[in-house]
Amino acid sequence: MERKPGRPKGSKTESLPTARTFPEGCPECGSTDREPLGAVITNDFNGEHDGRPYTSFSKGRTQCRNCGRCYFFTTYDFDPNKWENAARDEADREERERRERAKIISQQNASRKHGND
Ligand SMILES: [Zn+2]
């Protein structure tokens, strides 16, 4: 079996943590030990927060286990597969639009040439 040098195994998908929560800790005491309170609402949405891409985000309420302070938090989740699919869809869409524009331009050119004859 041939061994390929270079890229370490799994470097593509393991370089980023998949989920990050803001605030990272309790606004009162800074503790990250928290108890979820009530429902967490998750939205599928591709975007960027704090310089990192995300593919969904969840909002909910939580209570600090250290000091008892209740606060809202947002967790940004990153799924590389979802991100790549979205990027591919976007590229497909741009390619279709580009082809559509090229077609319109060539049609306009054709009819212009025709008119000048
Ligand atoms: Zn606290």
- Give the ordered list of helices and strands: HEEEEH
- How far is the first residue's CA from the last residue's CA? 66 Å
Structural class: alpha+beta
Give the tally of β-strands: 4
Listed once per kind, the bound small molecules are: zinc ion
Give, in spatial order, the strands making up the sheet with the most strands.
1-4-3-2
DSSP strand content: 35-45%
Rg value: 24 Å
Please describe the biggest sheet, giving its number of strands, its sense, and whether it closes into a barrel. 4 strands, antiparallel
Low-pLDDT parts are: none
Q: How many helices in DSSP terms?
A: 2
Shape: rod-shaped
Structurally, the number of domains stands at: 2
Question: What does this protein look like?
Answer:
The structure is a single chain. The chain is α+β, with helices and mostly antiparallel strands. It folds into two domains: 16-78, no CATH class; 80-117. Helix content is 35%, strand content 35%. Strands 1-4-3-2 form a four-stranded antiparallel beta sheet. Strand 3 (52-64) and strand 4 (70-77) form a beta hairpin. The mean pLDDT is 86. It binds zinc ion (ZN).
